[in-house]
Design a protein that fits this description.
Low-confidence stretches: none
Structural class: alpha/beta
CATH class: Alpha Beta
Distance between the termini: 13 Å
Number of strands: 5
Mean pLDDT: 94
Radius of gyration: 16 Å
Largest sheet: 5 strands, parallel
Order of helices and strands: EHEHHHEHEHHHEH
Number of helices: 9
CATH topology: Rossmann fold
CATH superfamily: P-loop containing nucleotide triphosphate hydrolases
Bound molecules: adenosine monophosphate
Number of domains: 1
């Protein structure tokens, strides 16, 4: 399976991505996780993107595209993958198309977790408080949502036009949402 998971920050993409990856035996590839690991290890890339992540903005396409290209050429991604957090812009959609074409591969589905935005903001505020994420102020949290709406939400139309979009209600418990995703993806695997 070659999949993308879309949804605003706080929709639970990372949690569901890990479960989907486990079920289908494919790697879950999160650009956000790759950036955060580089920041933690203080690599040159980490130092370069640290400020951008803290502000809630997007890392430039040239940096992000290079990272995804390298990652998708690793052996474990040959049989399939689930991308979480990429593509996020129209230009990144084109890059992914080009990478897949080089491999002679195609996407099976683009899963969108639909959520109530205000509920998600409240969830993120609570998490920031509990985990002591001082950088995650309400302003930054709302800015990330606004950037998602502006830059990334339009990608659902692109993938819908290609007949790839699978929308799943992302509200409810982790298990309930995963059940819905599993049912939706079984439909994809059968078709
Ligand atoms: P995430 O964990 O997916 O919410 O990503 C955390 C942060 O990493 C984002 O707020 C961006 O700053 C950066 N990031 C992750 N993926 C991308 C991407 N595809 N394009 C640009 N920036 C990204």
């Amino acid at each position: 399976m070659r999949l993308i998971i879309l949804g605003p920050p706080g929709a639970g993409k990372g949690t569901q991505a890990a479960k989907i990856a486990d079920k289908f035996g494919i790697p879950a590839i999160s650009t956000g996780d790759i950036f955060r690991a580089n920041i933690k290890n203080e690599t040159p890339l980490g130092l370069q993107v640290k400020e951008v992540l803290a502000s809630g903005g997007y890392v430039t396409d040239d940096i992000t595209n290079a990272i995804v290209r390298d990652r998708l050429f690793e052996d474990d991604a040959e049989q399939g993958f689930l991308l979480d957090g990429f593509p996020r812009t129209a230009a990144q959609v084109e890059t992914l198309d080009a990478i897949l074409a080089e491999h002679g591969h195609a996407l099976e589905a683009v899963l969108e977790l639909t959520v109530d935005q205000e509920a998600v903001v409240q969830r993120l505020l609570k998490r920031a408080e509990i985990e002591g994420r001082e950088d995650d102020t309400e302003e930054v949290i709302r800015e990330r949502q606004a950037i998602y709406r502006r830059e990334t939400a339009p990608l659902t139309e692109v993938y819908s036009a290609r007949g790839l979009l699978v929308q799943v209600d992302g509200m409810g418990s982790v298990d309930d949402v995963f059940l819905r995703i599993s049912e939706a993806l079984e439909g994809v695997a059968r078709s």
